[in-house]
Amino acid sequence: MPHTPSHRHRKWASLLLLLPIAAAAIYYVLPGHRAETPADWDTRRVSRGDLVASVSATGTLNPLITVQVGSQVSGTIQSLEADFNAPVRAGEIIARIEPSLFKANLAEAQASLKNAEALRDKAAIAIKEKRRNLERLKGLQERKLVSESDIDTAQFALDSAVVDLREKEAAVAKAAATLDHERFNLDNTIIRAPIDGVVISRSVDVGQTVAASLQAPTLFTIAQDLTRMQIETDVDEAYIGMVREGQPVNFTVFAYPEREFTGKLVQVRLEPKVEAGVVKYNCVIQVDNADLALKPGMTATVSIEVERHTNVLKVPNEALRFVPPLPAEELGKLRRELKNGEAVIWTPGAGGLEPRRVRVGLDGDKETEIAGVDVADGLPVAVPRRKDGENRHFRGFSLF
Q1: 121-128, Cβ contacts within 8 angstroms, sequence gap of 24 or more
Q2: pLDDT interval class at 10 (50, 70, 90)
Q3: Which phi and psi (to 5°) does residue 30 adopt?
Q4: Would you say residue 266 lies in a domain?
C-alpha cells in the first residue's frame, strides 16, 4: 500500500524528535563525556600569593592589670569620690565610710591604754616599796631583831610585785596594740586608689552598708591601663602543639565587624582545663588599644597565625574536596595511584573534566598550597556549585 504524504510527514517528525535523545546518549557514552553536567560545578582559578595557616578560637578582652578595691571594715558608705570611667591616681580618696563608731572605739582604746599605763606605774612603785621593806628587814635581822620567816615573807612580796609589774606591762602592750588596731580601722574608713588607672566598675552607692566580717566586699574595679589589653582564649589540645609564644594574632569583635585588630601571643599557660571531656589550654594574647576602641569584656574571635608560606600556588579548599560522579572503579583506580601527600584537582578540558595530580602543602582556612609540573597560575579548576540558599561555607568530604 503506498504511503500517503501525511504518513511520511509523521515518520520524519518522529525521527526528528529522537535525534536529540540519541545525541545525548552518545555524548554520555563516549570516553571523556561521563562527567557531571555543567550545572554541578563552577570554576575557580589557581592563584599565586601568600598562604597562612591559623588556629581559631574565641576569648574575652581584659585589661592587663585589674585591681578590685574593697573595704577592710564594715560600715555605711558616707561618700563616693569616684564614679564609672573616672581616672584616678594612686593614693587618691575614692570613698569614705561613716567614721563615728571607729572614732569612739579609738577614744576607748586610748583610755584603756592610759589606764593600763597607770596600773603599770603603780606596780612599779609597789616594787620599790617591797624592795625597801626587804632591805630594812635584812638590817634588823643582822641585829637579831626579826626572824628568818619575816625575811622570807618580805622576799615573797617583792617577787610577787615584780610578777605583777610584768603583768601590767603586758596589759599596756595589749592596750597599745588595740589602740593601733582601732587607729588602723579608722584610717581604713577612707578608701584610696591603690594604682593609677580608670574605674571600670562601682558596686556600691552612698548609704549602702558593707559587711567585711567574712571577706572584703568589692567596692570598685580599677583597670591600670586600657591602652594595653589582653585576650584570654582556650585552645584545644589537638592544636596546642602548633601554638607558640610570639606568634602574630588577628582578631575581630562584634562591635567592629569590618575592622581587623592585631596582637601577639605572649603566654601559653600549662594548666589544663577540661570542658565536656575536651582538654584545653589557656593562651594570653597582648593587644595594643591606643585608640581605646576595645572595651573590657568584649568577645574576640581570634585567629592565631601558626605558619605562613609566601609566593606559592594555591587553590580553594573546595577544589580538593570536589569529586565528579564518575564510576566507582575509575575513582578507585585514581585513588590507588596517588602517593602520600598528593591529591586530585579537576580541570575543564575539551572532553570534560580531567584529573590532575598535585602535591598538597600548607592547609589554610580557605585555600591550600599545591604544586605540580602541569599546574600554573590562572589554571581553571572545578569546585562544587552552591545551590540557592546553601551555606556559603561549604563543608564536604574528599575521596582523596
Answers
A1: 122/168, 123/161, 123/164, 123/165, 123/167, 123/168, 124/165, 126/161, 126/164, 126/165, 127/158, 127/161, 127/162, 127/165
A2: low
A3: -65, 145
A4: no
76-105 mean pLDDT: 95
Rounded CA-CA distance 69/76 in Å is 16
**What band does 171 get if pLDDT is binned at 50, 70 and 90?**
very high
Give the integer Cα–Cα distance in Å for 83 and 106: 30
CATH number of the domain at 121, please: 1.10.287.470
For residue 335, give Cα distances in angstroms to 159, 332, 340, 355, 356: 106, 5, 11, 11, 12
- Does residue 164 lie within any of the structural domains? yes
Question: In which domain, by residue range, is 132 found?
Answer: 99-188
Domain assignment present for residue 156? The answer is yes
Phi-psi region of 60 (alpha: psi -120 to 50; beta: other; left: phi over 0): beta
Distance between CA atoms of residues 101 and 99, nearest Å = 6
DSSP-based three-state secondary structure for 228: strand
SS3 53: strand
pTM, 2 dp? 0.67
The CA distance from 180 to 105, in Å, is: 11
The pLDDT of residue 216 is: 73
User: Nearest CA to 169 among 229, 243, 232, 116?
Assistant: 116
Find the helix or strand (DSSP H, E) in which 190 lies: strand 190-192
Number of domains making up the chain? 1
Are the C-beta atoms of residues 121 and 230 closer than 8 Å to each other? no
Whether the Cβ atoms of residue 297 and residue 66 lie closer than 8 Å to each other: no
Q: Report the candidate in 111, 372, 72, 377 with the shortest Cα–Cα distance to residue 211.
A: 72
Mean pLDDT throughout 118-129?
Answer: 94
Residue 112 lies in a domain: yes
- The Cα 141–Cα 135 span in angstroms is 10
Residue 58 has pLDDT above 60, yes or no: yes
pLDDT in tens, 238-276: 999 999 999 999 999 999 999 999 999 999 999 999 999
Q: Which tens digit of pLDDT belongs to each residue from 346-386?
A: 999 887 888 999 999 999 889 999 998 889 999 999 999 87
SS3 label, residue 155: helix
